[in-house]
Amino acid sequence: MNYSATIGLEVHVQLATRTKMFCACNTDFGSPPNTHVCPVCLGYPGALPVINEEAVRLTVMTGLMLGSEINPFSKFDRKNYFYPDMPKNYQISQYDRPLCIGGAVAIEANGVAKTIPLTRIHLEEDVAKNMHVRNASSIDFNRAGHPLMEVVTEPELDSSEEAFAFLQALKQILLYGGISPCNLEEGNLRCDVNCSVRPAGQPALGVKTEIKNLNTFKGVFQSLQYEIKRQIAVLESGGTIVQETRRWETETGITESMRSKEAAHDYRYFPDPDLMPVVLSSEQIECWKALLPELPRQRCDRLVRQYSIPPYDARVLSADKAMADYFEEACRYYASSQATRSAHAVAPSAAAGDEKLAKTGPKAISNWLMTEMLRLLSEKGIDIDQAAIRPKALAELVRLAEAQVVNSNTAKDVFAALFEQGGDPELWVKQKGLVQVSDAGAIEAMVEKAMADHPGSVADFRAGKSAALQFLVGQVMRASKGKAHPQRVQELLKKKLTTTAN
Amino acid sequence: MSEWNQLTVHQCRELLERGTCSSRQLVENLIEVIHALEPNLGAYLSVDEEQALRQADAADALRRQGKTARLLGIPIAVKDVINVAGQPCTCASRILEGYRSPYDATAIARLRAEGAVFLGRTNMDEFAMGSTTENSAFHITRNPWNRECVPGGSSGGSGAAVAADEAIAALGTDTGGSVRLPASFCGCVGLKPSYGRVSRYGLTAFASSLDQIGPMTKDVRDAAILLGIMAGHDSRDSTSVAAPVPDYQAALQRDLSGMKLGLPREYFIQGLDPDVEAGVQEAIRQCERLGARIVDVSLPMTPHAVAAYYIIASAEASANLARFDGVRYGLRVKDAVDPMDMYQRTRAMGFGPEVKRRIILGTYVLSSGYHDAYYLNAQKVRTLIRRDLEQAFQACDVLLTPVAPTAAYRIGEKSQNPLQMYLGDIFAVPASLAGMCALSVPCGFTSHRLPIGLQVIGPAFCEERILRAGYAYEQTTAWHRQKPPVMAPELHLTDKNDNEL
User: Fold this and answer.
1) A49 contacts in B (CB within 8 Å)?
2) A442 CB-near residues (< 8 Å, 6+ apart)
3) What CA–CA distance (Å, rounded) separates B29 from B447?
4) Which residues of B are known catalytic residues?
5) Residues of B numbered 115-174 whose beta carbons fall under 8 angstroms of chain A's beta carbons: which are they?
6) pTM score, two decimals?
7) What is the SS3 assignment for A414?
8) Does B492 reside within a domain?
9) Are A270 and A313 in a shared domain?
10) Residues B15 and B61 in one domain
């Protein structure tokens, strides 16, 4: 029998605020345990919470970016349950009046575009971190009280691929909006997934299970794949699914039961009497709306328009905000250097070297980013912000290549060197003596020497084996240590081989 | 030695400024009286003599340098539920035994900035839950007017300390009458400010939407002075209100001409102790003589106030007290096998029966399936009660009522019957639920020589009105100057010579 899966996600996003949700403690990650704590985030007797307005703004901005309706009257509630990572044994969260209602995220999975509707986005406080050392437990409260935004989807994802695509799309938007650093290693994004399966065509949803606290996208993907298979296997063998919370075991790659619905909490939500409702005027919302950043899709369209690059390039570049920022900055440097460099520009030619890198201007910059940059970044496992080659240097390198000061192979080497060390490409080329040899006399001497050294190849060419030409070009290039202008070499060789024959 | 201990705050200030006495003398005097009386009274949970004397010396030194402040060198006793940096804050509970506060409550910080000396921590019902101070986990407090009687609660230690001149003034907290009731039972002045008037930051929460810190003093002027210092917006308490703080002392006038005093007919009902009723009626006549006009008003929701109060207060308390779990501070049982075991045994051992009763009640009224029937309905009743009072204030400036249906009763008399004890809050809780301000002023004695309290209720943020009415009444009567008889034989102040005051 065929089965369809139904998946809903709850994504917890740590917001990029300087201070915690309800106190002035610092939100820095990686400090020694219990150094960013105070009576408020430790839940000391008499301490009171005060709402972090920046956290409210970031949540509303997220809602605006995702097309949510912003609740003009929102409030905070107490969610009651006991756990050692909860300083007050209640979490300040939002129950029936979240900041944002609805909204959607556009995704593309398995080549199919789809829009995933959101239920809500609300704001709450993060809990502390429990650490278990042999037979003791300790608690680090640095994280306790970090602003946590929860994005809840409708159960309209159909596969683990869609769940994965959703998380990537959401992350992209959050990065664009400066909402969260979205650093998965630091736990900035954590996900609970709800999943059920049912025989294809059956209208009623199956019994769902919840997998809690997944902190990687891969974990979401793999646990869902496992869980869907597990549920189908249970149904196939005539069993029934138990509504329960399950835990994903990364090592074994399976989900395990944590607690069943019978043991589910009654959170006894009620409005937190320590906090006033959040009332947002339409003026305030309009004011924030005006400050909305450009979103990935809008930027993609603009890149095509503004820089005349192919839509494919624009999509790749705009996928990562930092990459797109880099691209645009490089284009700006390129444009501003046009006047100064045009003096020794030579008409570009696409005949030699790597064709992609020989394109001019924005397209050339785009090519560098999509090929060399992405390759080196993934080799080193770093982000574009960490690459030593800065946009200005890339723009100049493109200029040098266009002006045929360096040939394309040399340019690749320069790029690789600057990627590691940074610096000015023109200076680098001069210091390393990499300036392309275009001097006709010097090239002619090397061509003649190559023909003299390899009479067999000369004969082969004249006998009609055109491949011999490439061999001879290679010999000249080697002799010039790669600096000879490959096209000139080829032209000259061709001329000599044919004329001498006559 | 002088009986400096009998002074009011404003008298202390005068004598300190004149150089008649020093802060050290004042504090030493109080410590001596505390030593003499405490075995029979139990008003304090702890007295920090060393720190108080250090603060007194520092205040005296500042004064010698010509510095002054509104409370410079004047000792204040603090209910053991308000945080004072470095001092215990047990809330009269085993679960916070040994806990020392790492910070000052905002009200404390403001008093400290005016030079106040923090002498000691007064007894109370555990976590302010109770009307008699019998629910303290450590010991009971006796009524200075009759040691067989309760001092009222939950701020019974503060009431008894002020009445017995073991303190110049004290702070109490009022959730559903906890300042007014002990003030009434002990014969001192107690003021519950409007909700949001005084910051709750640093007040260990019982019911967050009701709690307020209030002064307990020997006269109305002192209440005005302390309120004026503590009141005002605090960025650490979102529920504190940014309304300007008027000069409360300027509101103190000796007549009531032009004032309309409302008598809610639902407060003068069967079950009201005849002596209490007589005392309050006489006070009403006195107010008329001072120029006030008396009007009849109705607060029809009054019979529902106690039920709504106990649902809302307990619901909030069930969450507020969840933090006492043995993880970060306070009591933690040994050898817990897992967190749940630690929670259960720590809380079973740390909380007393009344606190447990209210946590269970509060958990119940919030639980799924009952939430709407109890918690939500109680909130609706609360709104109706506020409307009742707002409507009444259309017809009058303040309301005059008894604080409680009876004067102080015998220790143990009601402790086995919580419901009966809860009903003693009936006149106090409407002002609390409505967030309005209320004052308790001594207005006579019962035939058993127990104090009676007159309650003056005012609209939210109209503390000047209740202070004015209370002051005018107080200044033309002598009730507040009466001293409990139990004090005289206990004092043994015969070793020194002068007796100026």
Assistant:
1) 238
2) A480, A484
3) 33
4) 79, 154, 178
5) none
6) 0.87
7) helix
8) no
9) no
10) yes
